[in-house]
């Protein structure tokens, strides 16, 4: 699971990865100010995704073959579901008492009822992004199919918003209701192998409404990772240690600052309004997570470093 920012607690949620004994696998909460661990939930299996709701005092985590609800302030377990849940949900959102879950490869979206344990499913395709749009709907970005669709959670119906063609990356600016896509073929499939592509050089902006116009353009730099601010006005593109802070208005993208991270670090999360970048040390056996101050004028500076 990629790190997740929780604005309600001002913290970052990270999960244990490879090399950790299953009995010790946990979800940890790190303070955004100093990186201190302020909470731990012993999950004992890999965490695939986390679902935060703007007004909820709890959060959901999808852990392989189960769902858990945790108290947001303490990470204390409130409820768990072990039967009938959508499995290996790399993407999840909560809409009321429904947990909407998808694997990256799909092909179905599962709507699990937290009250009665029932689950409805609908065939969609692949999933490069799943985002809560409002109190009754979610956006599903299917990169292999090249489609952005709106899911009505109550009716379990899909409405295609746009079909920009295949894309590798997706991000959603919830305040601006804008989807940003990194165009390209996400998978190369042969009779002997499947290759996951990460590099893109084209961007497409799509408004989250039926019949939306697709605004496509060349990216200012090639990238393998992207993050869009909630208001849709700042875009961060990255490839390895190269990080580009860009301004955007939905019709153009311009590089405002370029940063270089130390070797072995890769961007995992950007908290835009704090000008904070969370990086993972890909060569660390201790799960080193660091936070870096980034801005339009200055070079990146280390804010904190911790072994999660």
From TrEMBL:
<dbReference type="InterPro" id="IPR015943">
    <property type="entry name" value="WD40/YVTN_repeat-like_dom_sf"/>
</dbReference>
<protein>
    <submittedName>
        <fullName>Uncharacterized protein</fullName>
    </submittedName>
</protein>
<dbReference type="InterPro" id="IPR011044">
    <property type="entry name" value="Quino_amine_DH_bsu"/>
</dbReference>
């Amino acid at each position: 699971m990629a790190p997740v920012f929780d604005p309600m607690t001002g913290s970052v949620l990270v999960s244990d990865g490879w090399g950790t004994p299953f009995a010790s696998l946990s979800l940890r909460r790190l303070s955004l100010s100093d990186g201190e661990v302020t909470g731990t939930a012993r999950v004992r299996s890999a965490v695939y995704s986390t679902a935060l709701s703007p007004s909820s005092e709890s959060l959901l985590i999808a852990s392989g073959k189960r769902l858990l609800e945790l108290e947001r302030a303490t990470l204390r377990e409130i409820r768990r579901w072990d039967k009938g849940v959508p499995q290996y949900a790399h993407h999840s959102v909560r809409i009321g008492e429904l947990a909407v879950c998808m694997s990256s490869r799909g092909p179905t979206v599962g709507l699990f009822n937290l009250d009665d344990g029932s689950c409805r499913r609908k065939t969609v395709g692949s999933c490069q992004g799943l985002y809560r749009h409002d109190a009754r709907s979610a956006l599903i970005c299917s990169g292999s199919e090249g489609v952005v669709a709106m899911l009505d959670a109550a009716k379990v119906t899909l409405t295609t918003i746009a079909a920009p063609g295949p894309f590798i990356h997706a991000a959603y600016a919830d305040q601006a209701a804008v989807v940003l896509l990194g165009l390209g073929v996400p998978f190369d499939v042969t009779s002997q192998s499947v290759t996951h592509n990460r590099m893109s050089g084209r961007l497409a902006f799509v408004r989250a409404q039926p019949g939306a116009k697709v605004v496509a353009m060349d990216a200012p730099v090639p990238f393998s990772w992207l993050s869009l601010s909630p208001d849709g006005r700042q875009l961060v593109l990255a490839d390895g240690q190269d990080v580009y802070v860009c301004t955007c208005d939905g019709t153009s993208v311009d590089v405002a600052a370029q940063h270089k991270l130390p070797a072995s670090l890769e961007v995992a999360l950007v908290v835009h309004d704090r000008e904070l970048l969370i990086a993972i040390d890909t060569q660390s056996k201790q799960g080193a997570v660091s936070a870096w101050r980034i801005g339009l004028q200055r070079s990146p500076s280390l804010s904190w470093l911790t072994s999660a």
